[in-house]
């Protein structure tokens, strides 16, 4: 069967955004063509969305620019907004002080993606980026496939090619709140990482991969109280690998999410800066700080400036690929 495709509204430049509803088993997902955003995700029997989002298209041109989006072409931060690619220095338009964040103000999250295939439980979107867009070399083609692969699973496959040496490191930037509450306090988070990357005041990694201790030791799971101060990459591996369980999040109301990925890093951001302003979230009220927890599977941040980090270089003739899967179930609360 074909997917349910509807109008989601019109951007400020007049272009139309579509919303594609996918359904299979216990899950219903809504994906937008703007930013390839995972706008809504519902588990049958749970009367609220498990991810933050809005029904107002203008919100995604404003404070919800990253919410649920595919961010890139290089997720996270590049220090000095500069990198050397194939022996040549490239300067990018900084958008966080002197830092390039999530590919810049006009990164993949701000683009209108094309629907390639749309079925009842599977959607493929395509984005073409021209050579020089946001300062990155290469004519690049990116695809994002969202698929409800079982009754309780959502799988995201990201791939990319380029006709010139470039950088590529995408991430889904969904915020999760499994209780439908004003904040995620009381959620229990487990991350299978024994090291993390400490950061400077600019949010850039220092270059050290430090053993996890205290609030950062999430290997056995920790009940979150919003004091942890997370905006760090947890080191899962030294390079991409087979699809592997890496994180578990359990809400106080008994919804459990297990996250698997092929990526070597997981950025955990506590959402302290969340503020949707006047735009309502799914429950009809604006979002405030800590409304959702971001768990972003990705390569390690500022990789072009740290030779020992997993590479984000994409060569012509090569292929970038990432697979991330979320599994949901209801467990006994408490």
Just give the CATH class: Mainly Beta
Q: What is the CATH fold-level name?
A: Beta-galactosidase, Chain A, domain 5
Count of helical regions: 0
The global form is: globular
Structural class: mainly beta
- How much strand content do the residues show? 35-45%
Q: Which strand order do you get reading across the main beta sheet?
A: 10-11-12-13-27-23-22-17-20
Given as residue ranges, the uncertain stretches (5+ residues, pLDDT < 50) are none
Radius of gyration: 19 Å
The helical percent reads under 10%
Reading the helices and strands in chain order gives EEEEEEEEEEEEEEEEEEEEEEEEEEE
Indicate how many domains the architecture comprises.
1
Give the CA-CA distance, first to last residue. Answer: 39 Å
Mean pLDDT: 97
Q: Any idea what the CATH architecture is?
A: Distorted Sandwich
Number of strand segments? 27
Major sheet, described briefly?
A: 9 strands, antiparallel
GO molecular function: isomerase activity
InterPro entries: Aldose_1/G6P_1-epimerase, Gal_mutarotase_sf_dom, Galactose_mutarotase-like, GH-type_carb-bd
Keywords: Carbohydrate metabolism, Isomerase
EC number: 5.1.3.-
Summarize the structure.
One of its GO terms (molecular function) is isomerase activity. The protein is 0% helix and 41% strand.
Please give a structural write-up.
By secondary structure, this protein is mainly beta. The protein has one domain (about 5-330): Beta-galactosidase, Chain A, domain 5 (Distorted Sandwich). About 0% of the residues lie in helices and about 40% in strands. The protein contains no helices and 27 strands. The chain has strands at about 5-10, 15-25, 25-30, 40-45, 70, 75-80, 80-85, 90, 100, 115-120, 120-130, 140-150, 155-160, 165, 170, 175, 190, 195, 210, 220-225, 230-235, 245-250, 255-260, 265-270, 295-300, 315, 320-330. Strands 10-11-12-13-27-23-22-17-20 form a 9-stranded antiparallel β-sheet, with no helix packed on it. Strands 16-25-24-21-18-19 form a 6-stranded antiparallel β-sheet, with no helix packed on it.
